[in-house]
Protein backbone atom coordinates (compact mmCIF):
# COMPACT_ATOMS: atom_id res chain seq x y z
CA UNK A 1 0.00 0.00 0.00
CA UNK A 2 1.50 3.31 -1.02
CA UNK A 3 1.72 6.40 1.21
CA UNK A 4 -1.00 8.36 -0.63
CA UNK A 5 -3.46 5.47 -0.27
CA UNK A 6 -2.78 5.34 3.47
CA UNK A 7 -3.31 9.09 3.79
CA UNK A 8 -6.61 8.90 1.88
CA UNK A 9 -7.89 6.09 4.09
CA UNK A 10 -6.87 7.99 7.23
CA UNK A 11 -8.65 11.10 5.98
CA UNK A 12 -11.85 9.14 5.31
CA UNK A 13 -11.62 7.53 8.74
CA UNK A 14 -11.39 10.89 10.48
CA UNK A 15 -14.15 12.62 8.49
CA UNK A 16 -17.42 13.05 10.33
CA UNK A 17 -20.78 14.32 9.16
CA UNK A 18 -24.01 15.51 10.73
CA UNK A 19 -27.60 16.07 9.74
CA UNK A 20 -28.93 19.50 10.71
CA UNK A 21 -32.67 19.55 11.31
CA UNK A 22 -32.98 22.89 9.52
CA UNK A 23 -36.16 24.83 10.18
CA UNK A 24 -34.91 27.99 8.50
CA UNK A 25 -34.80 29.69 11.89
CA UNK A 26 -31.98 31.20 13.91
CA UNK A 27 -31.64 28.32 16.37
CA UNK A 28 -31.03 25.63 13.76
CA UNK A 29 -28.76 27.99 11.79
CA UNK A 30 -26.69 28.48 14.92
CA UNK A 31 -26.68 24.72 15.55
CA UNK A 32 -25.30 24.31 12.03
CA UNK A 33 -22.53 26.79 12.81
CA UNK A 34 -21.68 24.94 16.02
CA UNK A 35 -21.57 21.62 14.15
CA UNK A 36 -19.35 23.11 11.45
CA UNK A 37 -17.10 24.59 14.13
CA UNK A 38 -16.78 21.10 15.62
CA UNK A 39 -15.56 19.79 12.27
CA UNK A 40 -18.67 18.12 10.88
CA UNK A 41 -19.59 18.05 7.21
CA UNK A 42 -23.21 19.20 7.08
CA UNK A 43 -26.35 17.68 5.59
CA UNK A 44 -29.38 19.98 5.90
CA UNK A 45 -32.81 18.39 6.20
CA UNK A 46 -35.75 20.78 5.93
CA UNK A 47 -39.37 19.71 6.37
CA UNK A 48 -42.43 21.53 5.08
CA UNK A 49 -45.44 20.21 6.98
CA UNK A 50 -48.10 22.83 6.26
CA UNK A 51 -46.88 25.53 8.65
CA UNK A 52 -48.03 29.09 7.92
CA UNK A 53 -44.62 30.37 6.89
CA UNK A 54 -43.33 27.27 5.13
CA UNK A 55 -42.39 29.11 1.91
CA UNK A 56 -40.18 31.60 3.76
CA UNK A 57 -38.72 28.92 6.00
CA UNK A 58 -37.77 26.81 2.98
CA UNK A 59 -36.20 29.82 1.29
CA UNK A 60 -34.10 30.53 4.38
CA UNK A 61 -33.07 26.91 4.96
CA UNK A 62 -31.97 26.67 1.34
CA UNK A 63 -29.96 29.89 1.64
CA UNK A 64 -28.31 28.68 4.84
CA UNK A 65 -27.30 25.41 3.20
CA UNK A 66 -25.63 27.39 0.43
CA UNK A 67 -23.82 29.53 3.02
CA UNK A 68 -22.51 26.48 4.89
CA UNK A 69 -21.78 24.56 1.66
CA UNK A 70 -24.03 21.78 2.95
CA UNK A 71 -25.95 19.04 1.22
CA UNK A 72 -29.64 19.92 1.20
CA UNK A 73 -32.79 17.83 1.19
CA UNK A 74 -36.38 18.95 1.59
CA UNK A 75 -39.22 16.68 2.67
CA UNK A 76 -42.84 17.68 2.21
CA UNK A 77 -45.57 16.12 4.32
CA UNK A 78 -49.06 17.19 5.27
CA UNK A 79 -49.93 14.78 8.04
CA UNK A 80 -49.22 17.26 10.85
CA UNK A 81 -51.39 19.92 9.25
CA UNK A 82 -54.17 17.37 8.68
CA UNK A 83 -54.01 16.41 12.35
CA UNK A 84 -54.23 20.10 13.26
CA UNK A 85 -54.67 21.40 16.82
CA UNK A 86 -51.94 24.01 16.31
CA UNK A 87 -52.13 27.64 15.27
CA UNK A 88 -49.04 27.03 13.12
CA UNK A 89 -50.91 24.64 10.85
CA UNK A 90 -54.62 25.46 11.34
CA UNK A 91 -55.81 28.69 9.73
CA UNK A 92 -58.88 28.52 11.98
CA UNK A 93 -56.70 29.20 15.03
CA UNK A 94 -55.09 32.58 15.66
CA UNK A 95 -51.40 32.88 16.45
CA UNK A 96 -51.38 34.50 19.88
CA UNK A 97 -49.32 37.49 20.92
CA UNK A 98 -46.26 36.74 23.01
CA UNK A 99 -46.70 35.76 26.66
CA UNK A 100 -43.07 35.45 27.60
CA UNK A 101 -43.58 34.59 31.27
CA UNK A 102 -46.19 31.92 30.66
CA UNK A 103 -45.35 28.26 31.22
CA UNK A 104 -48.56 27.04 29.60
CA UNK A 105 -48.35 25.04 26.37
CA UNK A 106 -49.04 27.68 23.68
CA UNK A 107 -51.47 27.33 20.79
CA UNK A 108 -48.46 27.17 18.44
CA UNK A 109 -47.48 23.75 19.83
CA UNK A 110 -47.70 21.12 17.07
CA UNK A 111 -48.53 17.85 18.84
CA UNK A 112 -45.40 15.65 19.06
CA UNK A 113 -43.80 17.49 16.12
CA UNK A 114 -40.20 16.96 17.14
CA UNK A 115 -40.65 13.21 17.34
CA UNK A 116 -41.96 13.24 13.77
CA UNK A 117 -39.17 15.49 12.47
CA UNK A 118 -36.42 13.70 14.36
CA UNK A 119 -37.62 10.35 13.03
CA UNK A 120 -37.26 11.59 9.45
CA UNK A 121 -33.89 13.10 10.24
CA UNK A 122 -32.62 9.86 11.81
CA UNK A 123 -33.68 7.98 8.67
CA UNK A 124 -31.68 10.46 6.61
CA UNK A 125 -28.70 10.24 8.95
CA UNK A 126 -28.65 6.45 8.87
CA UNK A 127 -29.03 6.34 5.09
CA UNK A 128 -26.10 8.73 4.63
CA UNK A 129 -23.87 7.27 7.38
CA UNK A 130 -23.90 10.46 9.41
CA UNK A 131 -22.47 10.45 12.91
CA UNK A 132 -24.75 13.00 14.53
CA UNK A 133 -28.03 14.85 14.26
CA UNK A 134 -28.23 18.47 15.47
CA UNK A 135 -31.43 20.20 16.59
CA UNK A 136 -31.65 23.78 17.86
CA UNK A 137 -34.13 23.34 20.73
CA UNK A 138 -33.39 25.48 23.81
CA UNK A 139 -34.54 26.11 27.38
CA UNK A 140 -37.14 28.77 26.51
CA UNK A 141 -38.72 26.22 24.17
CA UNK A 142 -39.13 23.42 26.69
CA UNK A 143 -40.88 25.65 29.20
CA UNK A 144 -43.88 25.47 26.86
CA UNK A 145 -43.15 22.69 24.39
CA UNK A 146 -42.95 19.22 25.98
CA UNK A 147 -41.03 17.76 23.02
CA UNK A 148 -38.13 20.17 23.66
CA UNK A 149 -37.33 18.93 27.17
CA UNK A 150 -33.89 17.44 27.86
CA UNK A 151 -35.62 14.23 28.97
CA UNK A 152 -37.29 13.97 25.58
CA UNK A 153 -33.96 14.02 23.73
CA UNK A 154 -32.43 11.56 26.18
CA UNK A 155 -35.34 9.18 25.59
CA UNK A 156 -35.19 9.68 21.83
CA UNK A 157 -31.49 8.81 21.87
CA UNK A 158 -32.45 5.45 23.36
CA UNK A 159 -35.00 4.96 20.57
CA UNK A 160 -32.33 5.69 17.97
CA UNK A 161 -29.86 3.33 19.61
CA UNK A 162 -32.26 0.37 19.63
CA UNK A 163 -34.11 1.19 16.40
CA UNK A 164 -31.22 1.44 13.95
CA UNK A 165 -28.73 -1.12 12.62
CA UNK A 166 -26.28 -2.53 15.12
CA UNK A 167 -23.38 -0.87 13.33
CA UNK A 168 -25.15 2.50 13.24
CA UNK A 169 -24.16 5.15 15.78
CA UNK A 170 -26.00 8.49 15.59
CA UNK A 171 -25.68 11.00 18.42
CA UNK A 172 -28.65 13.29 19.01
CA UNK A 173 -27.08 16.69 19.66
CA UNK A 174 -29.19 19.45 21.24
CA UNK A 175 -26.36 21.83 22.18
CA UNK A 176 -28.65 24.65 23.36
CA UNK A 177 -31.07 22.66 25.47
CA UNK A 178 -29.99 24.48 28.66
CA UNK A 179 -29.39 27.83 26.91
CA UNK A 180 -31.49 30.94 26.52
CA UNK A 181 -32.23 32.57 23.18
CA UNK A 182 -29.77 35.29 24.16
CA UNK A 183 -27.02 32.69 24.67
CA UNK A 184 -27.74 31.30 21.22
CA UNK A 185 -27.66 34.71 19.54
CA UNK A 186 -24.40 35.60 21.29
CA UNK A 187 -22.73 32.41 20.08
CA UNK A 188 -24.18 32.85 16.60
CA UNK A 189 -22.83 36.37 16.30
CA UNK A 190 -19.40 35.10 17.36
CA UNK A 191 -19.60 32.39 14.67
CA UNK A 192 -20.85 34.79 11.97
CA UNK A 193 -24.18 33.03 11.51
CA UNK A 194 -26.05 34.65 8.57
CA UNK A 195 -29.06 35.76 10.59
CA UNK A 196 -30.30 37.75 7.60
CA UNK A 197 -31.04 34.33 6.05
CA UNK A 198 -33.19 33.13 8.95
CA UNK A 199 -36.89 33.36 9.80
CA UNK A 200 -38.68 32.93 13.11
CA UNK A 201 -42.11 34.56 12.78
CA UNK A 202 -45.10 32.29 13.31
CA UNK A 203 -47.58 34.58 11.54
CA UNK A 204 -46.18 36.17 8.41
CA UNK A 205 -43.65 35.62 5.66
CA UNK A 206 -42.75 39.30 5.16
CA UNK A 207 -42.27 41.31 7.20
CA UNK A 208 -42.09 39.43 10.50
CA UNK A 209 -44.87 40.54 12.85
CA UNK A 210 -42.66 41.34 15.85
CA UNK A 211 -45.31 40.34 18.41
CA UNK A 212 -45.73 36.55 18.32
CA UNK A 213 -43.74 34.38 20.76
CA UNK A 214 -41.05 33.53 18.22
CA UNK A 215 -40.50 37.15 17.19
CA UNK A 216 -40.52 38.37 20.80
CA UNK A 217 -37.87 35.97 22.08
CA UNK A 218 -35.74 36.60 18.99
CA UNK A 219 -35.94 40.38 19.25
CA UNK A 220 -35.31 40.22 22.97
CA UNK A 221 -32.11 38.24 22.40
CA UNK A 222 -30.69 40.78 19.97
CA UNK A 223 -31.81 43.69 22.14
CA UNK A 224 -30.12 42.28 25.24
CA UNK A 225 -26.89 41.98 23.25
CA UNK A 226 -27.16 45.49 21.89
CA UNK A 227 -27.29 44.17 18.33
CA UNK A 228 -29.83 44.82 15.59
CA UNK A 229 -31.75 41.86 14.20
CA UNK A 230 -31.11 42.08 10.43
CA UNK A 231 -34.55 40.94 9.22
CA UNK A 232 -37.55 43.23 8.64
CA UNK A 233 -40.35 43.59 11.20
CA UNK A 234 -43.76 45.23 11.09
CA UNK A 235 -43.12 46.22 14.73
CA UNK A 236 -40.01 46.15 16.91
CA UNK A 237 -41.25 46.38 20.52
CA UNK A 238 -38.70 46.75 23.29
CA UNK A 239 -38.54 43.39 25.10
CA UNK A 240 -35.51 44.08 27.27
CA UNK A 241 -37.60 44.46 30.43
CA UNK A 242 -39.48 41.19 29.88
CA UNK A 243 -38.50 38.08 31.81
CA UNK A 244 -37.04 35.31 29.68
From TrEMBL:
Coiled coil: none annotated. Gene3D superfamilies: HUPs. Zn(2+) binds at residues 201, 209, 212, 215. InterPro entries: QueC, Rossmann-like_a/b/a_fold. ATP binds at residues 22-32. Its EC number is 6.3.4.20. It catalyses: 7-carboxy-7-carbaguanine + NH4(+) + 2 ATP = 7-cyano-7-carbaguanine + 2 AMP + 2 diphosphate + 2 H(+). Keywords: ATP-binding, Ligase, Metal-binding, Nucleotide-binding, Zinc. It comes from the Archaea. Pathway: Purine metabolism; 7-cyano-7-deazaguanine biosynthesis. One of its GO terms (molecular function) is ligase activity, forming carbon-nitrogen bonds. Binds 1 zinc ion per subunit. Its cofactor is Zn(2+). Catalyzes the ATP-dependent conversion of 7-carboxy-7-deazaguanine (CDG) to 7-cyano-7-deazaguanine (preQ(0)). Belongs to the QueC family. HAMAP family: QueC (MF_01633). PANTHER family: 7-CYANO-7-DEAZAGUANINE SYNTHASE. This is 7-cyano-7-deazaguanine synthase. It comes from Halospeciosus flavus.
Amino acid sequence: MNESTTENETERATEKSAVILASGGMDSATAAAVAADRGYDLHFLHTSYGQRTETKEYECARAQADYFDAEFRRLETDHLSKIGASSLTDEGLDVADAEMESEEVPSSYVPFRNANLLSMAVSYAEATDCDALFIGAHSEDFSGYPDCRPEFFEAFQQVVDVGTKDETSIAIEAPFVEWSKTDIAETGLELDVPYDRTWSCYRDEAPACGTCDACAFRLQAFQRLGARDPIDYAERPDYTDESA
